[in-house]
Amino acid sequence: MEEQMKKWLEPFSTTDGKPSTLATMQEQVKEWIDQDKIDVFLGYKMVQGHPLPHFFTKSNLGEVDELISGQARYSLEKIATKIAAETPDIKIGLMVRDCNQRALNVLYVWNQLNPENVETIHLNCCPSKLKKHADCSYLEPEKAAVYKKKVGIDNNMDVEDAEAFNMEQRFQRWMYEFSKCIKCYGCRDICPVCFCKECSLEHPELIATGTLPPEIPIFHLVRAVHMGGRCIDCGLCEDACPVDIPLRLLYRKVNATVQDEFGYETGTHAGQSPFNLLGDEVTLEPKPL
Ligand code: SF4
Ligand code: SF4
Prior knowledge:
By secondary structure, the chain is an alpha/beta fold. It has helices at residues 2-6, 22-34, 76-86, 98-109, 146-151, 159-162, 167-178, 186-190, 218-226, 236-240, 247-262; strands spanning 40-47, 50-56, 67-68, 92-96, 118-122. It has two domains: 2-122, no CATH class; 141-262, no CATH class. Bound molecules: iron/sulfur cluster (2 copies).
């Protein structure tokens, strides 16, 4: 255990300007739980050699000494959303990187979490390779193989590079990527901002069932449309996808359109979204054509 824990780096920033060490983070969590500021803290603990999400509460306070940080990335905020749906008044603490915070902002916008009931400890990481002390699985992107580069889409491409293909090539390349889909729903299940109780991807009238790959491109386009104004570019869907479809790039394109049309940068704040028709009255207007 000691050896395994050494591999996981200490956090680089914590709340309240306290010195940035793992011990400080653990102390902070204990203090919050002790003072009833939070009912549960969502973080990571090593279990049989793997860093896994773990609930720390008053009943297992001693385990906070085993709380770790590191490169593990799960949608802790998605877990928080599910807990809050069952127990709306629960106070939740969680460990957040930049991507988690963007997801939290979207979940606040969509009234899935109440910011009044959430405390966060920030870890320094994404989004840039250039950011000092960054600590994220995306710092070393996977390399695309020769065949994928020839007929598909390299997952490391920017939107502009992907758009350099002519329309016919673009269509063929994306269809190649979509044709690999095994409809495992991993992309949806891991996504921190997929929270609908009823999912269009499982609606037989929208997407025919009984074949693999799922009806393409509609399966992927339905999800892409739903990610407009929601996807915070964490890349977890792409991490989860067993067949390496460049989902992140697809949703980046969707959100570039949202930004162009509405000037809305998804996840950068917990204010209004042009698509959020729940709760507060929406006053955002599309830009004039
Ligand atoms: S990158 Fe994928 S997992 Fe992350 S928010 Fe966007 S769609 Fe969801
Ligand atoms: S994770 Fe990949 S294979 Fe699974 S449903 Fe999503 S796109 Fe298809």
